[in-house]
Each structure stands twice: as C-alpha cells, then as structure tokens.
Write a structure and sequence with these properties.
The structure is a single chain. This protein is of the alpha+beta class and 189 residues long. The chain has two domains: 91 residues; 71 residues, no CATH class. The protein is 54% helix and 22% strand. It is built from five helices and five strands; from the N terminus they run αβββαββααα. A five-stranded antiparallel beta sheet has the order 3-2-1-4-5. Helix 1 packs antiparallel against helix 4, helix 1 crosses helix 5 and helix 4 crosses helix 5. The longest helix has 31 residues. It starts with a helix and ends with a helix. 17% of the residues are buried.
Length: 189
Amino acid sequence: MSTLTLLILLLMFVTPVISVMTVMLRFSEIKQAANWPQISGEVTDVLLRQSGSEYQPLLEIAYTVDGQSYSSRQVPVSKTGQAKGSKKWAREFSLQLKPGTAVSLYYDPNRPKRAALNRQSMQGDSTRLKITSSIMILLSIGIHLLGARGLIANYLNLTGSSIAIAMLISTVVTLLVCAALGLLVQEMR
C-alpha cells in the first residue's frame, strides 16, 4: 500500500471518530452541567471587555470547594438576558456586581475549577451547537465516503452499484463504531 492510500485510510476512519466523539462528549457535558451543585462565591474584580462598539462586564470570582480555593472569570447576564451593550450599560450593570459582592455559582464536582454563573451558560447556544455538530459529522461522513469510494474501486475491483453498497456498509459500520467509542468514553468519565 502506498503512503497516500494509508493517509486516505487514516483520514476516512479517524475523522468520523473524532467528529462523533467530540459531539457526544459536548452534549454529555451539557447534560451533566444541569446537575452541578451551587455554591457561594465572591466577586474580586470587575473588568469591561470591549468587542467592537459593545461592552461586556467580566467578573473575577473567588470560591472554595472542599477547602480548596478557586478563581473563575465569568460573564454575567442581566435579568433581561443581556450580556453586552453600550459602555454606559456595561458600567451601570457592573456597579451591581462590584468587588465584595456575593454571587451564586455552579461548579463541576469532577473538576471544581470549572464553574458558571448559571447553568444555561454552560449550554451555550444550542442552535449553533446543533448546526456546528451536524456540519462536522456530515463533513466527516463525506470524507469517509470519498475515501471509501476510491479504495473500494481500486482494491476490491467493484463496479456500479456494488461500490455504492460497499460504501454504505463501510460508512454505517464506521458510524456505529464511532458511537460505541463515544458511549464508552462517556461511561469512563
């Protein structure tokens, strides 16, 4: 087998594995974040971060879990769901959260260094996550199909519908292996 053939084989099997496992682990993290315990933290510093013409308060929060001290940088969200705005808005909002203010925080019991002001912030934009995940998996399936077609046509000497059937079987088996590996990794966490 040539180096190019080995590279194609590697890409066509590794790409879907990485894609499916990444997506499964991300959704697993989101599910676990819904059960994170809540603790009290204290704002130690407030910064304003500029992004174009918008400003965003950035809090440095100190908290303790099982006697161990941690610090986390968090973006607060107003009661209306706003996280960015004009400089005036950001200053006024950050005055409510000046250093010394107690805030509730959720933390990952497996990795207490990971924390969030609210559980929804760990979920991120679920629509964007779903779209990105779908694109990532579809691209990896495309790479797998291209590699499978070339290898099957060259090494198995199949033609016509036999190539399509072999490609389909190869892709389904690869995705099933990816899902099984993803589930295994989730259980090990």
